Amino acid sequence: MSRILEKKQLSETVFLMRLEAPLIARERQAGQFIILQLCEDFGERIPLTVADADPEEGSITIIFQAVGKTTKQMAAMEVGEEIAALVGPLGSPTHIENFGTVVCVGGGIGVAPLHPIAQAMKAAGNKVIIIMGARNKDLMILEDEMRAIADELIICTDDGSQGRKCLVTEPLKELCEQDPKPDLAVAIGPPIMMKFCAETTRPYEVHTQVSLNTIMVDGTGMCGGCRVTVGDETKFVCVDGPEFDGHLVDFDNMITRLNSYKKQESEAHNCKIGLKAGEEA
C-alpha cells in the first residue's frame, strides 16, 4: 500500500500526487518509472515516470493526465487514501554526464518526466535549454520549476496563448542551425512529437534520445507488451529503456501498437469511471 500525501491539480486534466514510497524514493534515479495498480485483486497496471523524490520524507511525486479509466479513478482519489500496488524504480536511468549544451524538449504531459532529467543534466554542469510545448497556456505545466533549471526557456503553444505560436520543432531546428549546435537533445511527449523532433535533429547529426511510454503489464520484460523496434532489433521499453536513440526508433510501428486496445479502452472508459480504488467494477 502507498498512501497519498498530497494531491494538486495542475490543469484541467493533469494532476500531481506525492506518494509514500520510502524504498523507491531512496533508489530512484532520473529517467526511471514506477508501475501502479489501484486495486489488489484486479485492475489495469500503468507506468508513470517518477517526476521527483524526497528520500528524507520517503516520498515520490508522480504527474498524470486523467484520460482513461484508471487515471480518472486516480484523479478522484484524495489525500490519505491508498494505492494498492506500487512497483519500482523500473527501467534504466538516464545517462547523465557533462555533454556541453543539452536541449530538453517537452510536449504536454511529457514535461513531467523531462523535469528530473533536465534537473540532473543541469547538476552535471551542462548548459540546459528547455523547450516546452502545449496546445494552450492552460495546459502548460511546471513552468516555474523548469524556469529555475533552464539557462534558456522557450515556450510554445499551438494557439499562441503563451510564448511562441509554433510547434516545438521550430525552435529546436533554429538551435540545431546555430554554431555551435547542441551536443544532445532529449525529447519527451506524445509519440508523434518525439518522431518529428528526431526528424528535425537528424540532418544536423544531433544525438537525440527519447523516452517511450508504451503499453506495459509486468514491467520486467516478460509480457512483451512494450516491445518496440529500434534499428534492426526488438527492444522492451520496461527493461531496455525507457530511453532510446530517437533516430533509430520505429515510431510508426510503435504508434500502431499503442492503438491495439482502443476498443477495450473505450469500453472500460464508459464503464463506471468514477469508481474509487477497492470498489467493484
Topology diagram in text:
Elements: E1 2-9, E2 14-20, H1 22-27, E3 33-37, E4 45-54, E5 59-65, H2 69-75, E6 82-83, E7 85-90, E8 101-107, H3 111-123, E9 127-134, H4 143-149, E10 152-157, E11 164-165, H5 169-176, E12 184-188, H6 191-201, E13 208-211, E14 227-230, E15 233-236, H7 237-240, E16 243-245, H8 251-258, H9 262-269
Parallel strand pairs: 8-9, 8-12, 9-10, 10-11, 12-13
Antiparallel strand pairs: 1-2, 1-6, 2-5, 3-4, 3-7, 4-5, 13-16, 14-15
Helix pairs in contact: 5-6
Protein model, in words:
This protein is α/β, with parallel strands linked by helices and 281 residues long. The protein has 2 domains: 2-92, Elongation Factor Tu (Ef-tu), domain 3 (Beta Barrel), CATH 2.40.30.10; 101-258, Rossmann fold (3-Layer(aba) Sandwich), CATH 3.40.50. Helices cover 26% and strands 31% of the residues. The chain has 9 helices and 16 strands. It has helices spanning 22-27, 69-75, 111-123, 143-149, 169-176, 191-201, 237-240, 251-258, 262-269; strands at residues 2-9, 14-20, 33-37, 45-54, 59-65, 82-83, 85-90, 101-107, 127-134, 152-157, 164-165, 184-188, 208-211, 227-230, 233-236, 243-245. A 7-stranded antiparallel sheet has the order 6-1-2-5-4-3-7, with helices on both faces. The protein has a 7-stranded mixed sheet with strand order 11-10-9-8-12-13-16, with helices on both faces. Strands 14-15 form a two-stranded antiparallel ribbon. A hairpin with a 4-residue loop joins strand 4 (45-54) and strand 5 (59-65). Helix 5 packs parallel to helix 6 (191-201). It is globular, with a radius of gyration of 18 Å. The two termini are 20 Å apart.
